[in-house]
Amino acid sequence: MVVLNKIYTRTGDAGETALGDGSRVSKHSLRVRAYGTVDELNSILGLARLHASGAEDEGLARIQNDLFDLGADLCRPDMERDADAEYPPLRMVASQTERLETEIDAMNARLEPLRSFILPGGSALAAHLHHARTVARRAERHVIELSSMEGVNAAAVIYLNRLSDWFFVAARIANDDGRADVLWVPGANR
């Protein structure tokens, strides 16, 4: 259980922060950038949820929780020491990605095939979901870069890759099942 009885600690005043294993790193480290971008993505979902209801809102709530799991995974380096940890670290698992895939397939079954690229926009919810899609891709790039230098849970990378697909399809659903998508018209303003 997390207990936060004091919000500021002053321990980061010199530009360092603590990771989940207690080690300290620069706040501009790639690991911090990766999980910080996941946190940014979670905030965007908070805005999206202002425009969602029912199943849309429930799906976004599940993803917000997953993103906290993902942040916990990313802030804990050195997966080889997981078995020796006093408390088992929270790691992303394949079933979280499998749930996204099932939901993508169900949403996509409602949609007509695309015959053009889509411009981000349409409804307020769709616009926020497109924003979330692009930030998910940025988070994925940071995590992949991190994985080229340090150990990263492969399930975390796969989850982020699938998550941006989920946001794309959900944005189409939010645009009246794709009927209100804003289509790209190549060379329209030449």
From TrEMBL:
Residues 7-173 form the Cobalamin adenosyltransferase-like domain. Keywords: ATP-binding, Cobalamin biosynthesis, Cytoplasm, Nucleotide-binding, Transferase. One of its GO terms (cellular component) is cytoplasm. Belongs to the Cob(I)alamin adenosyltransferase family. It is found in: Cytoplasm. It comes from the Bacteria. One of its GO terms (molecular function) is corrinoid adenosyltransferase activity. This is Corrinoid adenosyltransferase. It is an enzyme of class 2 (transferase). Its main location: cytoplasm. Pathway: Cofactor biosynthesis; adenosylcobalamin biosynthesis; adenosylcobalamin from cob(II)yrinate a,c-diamide: step 2/7. Its EC number is 2.5.1.17. It catalyses: 2 cob(II)yrinate a,c diamide + reduced [electron-transfer flavoprotein] + 2 ATP = 2 adenosylcob(III)yrinate a,c-diamide + 2 triphosphate + oxidized [electron-transfer flavoprotein] + 3 H(+); 2 cob(II)alamin + reduced [electron-transfer flavoprotein] + 2 ATP = 2 adenosylcob(III)alamin + 2 triphosphate + oxidized [electron-transfer flavoprotein] + 3 H(+). PANTHER family: CORRINOID ADENOSYLTRANSFERASE (PTHR12213), CORRINOID ADENOSYLTRANSFERASE MMAB (PTHR12213:SF0). Transmembrane segments: none annotated. It holds the Pfam family Cob_adeno_trans. GO terms for biological process: cobalamin biosynthetic process.
